[in-house]
Write a structure and sequence with these properties.
The protein is mostly helical. The protein has helices at 17-27, 32-37, 41-54, 60-73, 77-89, 95-102, 109-124, 130-138, 143-166. The chain is 64% helix and 0% strand.
């Protein structure tokens, strides 16, 4: 049962409305998570700015794979539905690649290193080892790219935590529970 109610358009704070309207126009509907998050213009607009900036980091397949891995570790079912949908429809990942990403891996060696590193960052709360940094650098990621991976982990964790706290009603297709993959 949702712990917060998605705002109806007439109840969205004026400071959140332009950002929410942009998402609605882009996606074609207003996801419940965003309609709930919009209750705090400060947090919602800060997240949207971070999301927009990080949409230029790495490539879409790697970003979505990191989102899946982080959401799996954080146990965020709402985000797993969203990232599974976007991974399939925007990043064009196969169902097998989506499951692999949820497990912290990828078929592509470079993407695999990034996803494994992201998973290590979230599991260790950033206390990665020298070998973890070496592994991601050895496939060609620069320190700037590694910073972007850490930023993506933080951004995805923010929405994971928000959705785990408030449990908005899911409006994307359901995914297989983690124990079944």
């Amino acid at each position: 049962m949702p712990r917060t109610i998605a705002l109806k358009p007439e109840h969205v704070p004026a400071e959140s409305k332009p950002t929410l309207d942009t998402f609605t126009k882009s996606i074609g509907f207003t996801p419940n998570m965003m309609a709930a998050f919009a209750q705090s213009p400060i947090a919602f607009n800060a997240w949207a700015t971070l999301l927009g900036s990080l949409s230029k980091a790495l490539d879409v397949r790697t970003r979505d794979s990191i989102g899946l891995a982080v959401s799996e570790v954080n146990g965020c079912n709402y985000c797993l539905t969203v990232h599974s949908y976007t991974a399939e429809h925007m990043a064009r990942l196969s169902a097998g690649d989506i499951i692999l990403a949820r497990k912290g891996h990828a078929n592509d060696p470079k993407r695999d290193a990034a996803v494994q590193f992201a998973r290590k960052v979230i599991e260790t709360r950033g206390h990665v080892g020298d070998a973890d940094l070496k592994a991601v650098r050895d496939v060609g990621y620069t320190d700037a790219n590694i910073i972007e991976i850490v930023a993506l982990v933080a951004m995805y964790s923010l929405t994971n935590f928000f959705n785990n706290v408030f449990d908005p009603e899911r409006d994307f297709p359901a995914v297989t529970p983690a124990g079944s993959i």
